[in-house]
Design a protein that fits this description.
Order of helices and strands of chain A: HHHHHHHHH
Number of helices of chain A: 9
Pfam family, one (chains A, B): TetR_N
Keywords (chains A, B): DNA-binding, Transcription, Transcription regulation
Organism (chains A, B): Nocardia alba
Protein name (chains A, B): TetR family transcriptional regulator
Number of domains of chain A: 2
Helix content of chain A: 55-70%
GO molecular function (chains A, B): DNA-binding transcription factor activity; transcription cis-regulatory region binding
CATH architecture of the largest domain in chain A: Orthogonal Bundle
Structural class of chain A: mainly alpha
Oligomer: homodimer
Strand content of chain A: under 5%
CATH class of the largest domain in chain A: Mainly Alpha
Chain lengths: 197, 197
């Protein structure tokens, strides 16, 4: 692929910076091609060429800032899960990605284009945890009958709930408390009435 | 308080039914006074009198359908938590309240009026669990050092994550699995390295 013209790169960066600012300040309602053009000085024609739909603007503003955890697994269950959840923590506290998640949660239910973007982010965002959990089951460190989807929800759900529903920030101590509670639930002796169903 | 004129009650019901339909079909963008007027046949003047702001429309459309769990606690920890989480399950699967939650998650970050409504719903929606957990700590069934906010997140977070982020529905078996895993984590013997911090 030919390297991009430096002027194009500068335009793109300026447009994305403006798009992120608008998303953070005003949410989806404020993220229009006209508003990005007015703030960044990039022409609307250029913006429409780069990102034809409002969905494309949101996706571009959000994904550029997502640093997906693709670390090499160390084989240490707790350490590997913590690496993945640390990336989730960062995503929920970086204003553009946080607000992008909020927008997608609202729009995904009524607009298939947003649903598609959100589904892709959900899949890539939880992939690290899935890989780590599957490897731990294979090593016998987690029960063979582990419900992988439930486990993913238990690890990520509290973080999303606290940031997006309770509207509170949190630190890595909180992430570790969620993780250690999860490990406790699955490493403890199980009494029959509380077995995994 | 004087009972409302029956015609006013009918107007109100018709307007709220239209507001819920618009919210479900189009999300917040479609829930305007004009659209509710066009669909319900109620005049815009009446709508503005009843609900001056778009926030008021959303709040009215959503809260009318929320059946908050205010059951008399039985003193059975698992049964009482399950009652509260069953109400959360219903809220996440009733289209108007589900979409209302999505709207508030998006708007709360950029509009203080929505933040206020969401905060009130969050508080009342988690109150049953807080009361139950506090009573169980007092009875010695849960550790005295239980982090109440963390526990609330662990019980509700997976449900919200699965419905609003993974965009999947779920049944009460899933709710019971989340609950039993939670009880397992806190009823097990705690090893020092995984203590509650």
């Amino acid at each position: 692929m030919r390297p991009l013209d430096p002027r194009t790169v500068r335009s793109l960066d300026a447009a994305l910076a403006s798009a992120r600012e608008l998303l953070i300040e005003q949410g989806l309602a404020g993220l229009t091609h006209s508003a990005v053009a007015a703030r960044s000085g990039i022409s609307r024609a250029t913006l429409y060429r780069l990102w034809p739909e409002p969905t494309d603007l949101v996706r571009a503003a959000v994904t550029q800032h997502i640093t997906l955890a693709r670390p090499k697994p160390t084989g240490d269950l707790r350490a590997d899960l913590l690496t993945g959840l640390t990336a989730t923590h960062a995503m929920l506290h970086e204003p553009a990605t946080e607000q992008g998640m909020r927008v997608m949660i609202e729009r995904a239910a009524v607009d298939p284009r947003f649903a598609e973007v959100k589904q892709a982010l959900y899949r890539s965002g939880t992939q690290a945890a899935r890989t780590t959990l599957t490897a731990a089951v294979a090593r016998g460190e987690l029960p063979a009958e582990l419900d992988l989807d439930l486990a993913v929800d238990q690890l990520h759900g509290p973080l999303f709930f606290r940031r997006l529903v309770a509207n509170r920030t949190f630190d890595l101590d909180y992430v570790r408390a969620v993780l250690d509670s999860f490990l406790r639930a699955y490493s403890s002796k199980q009494s029959p009435e509380h077995g995994i169903s």
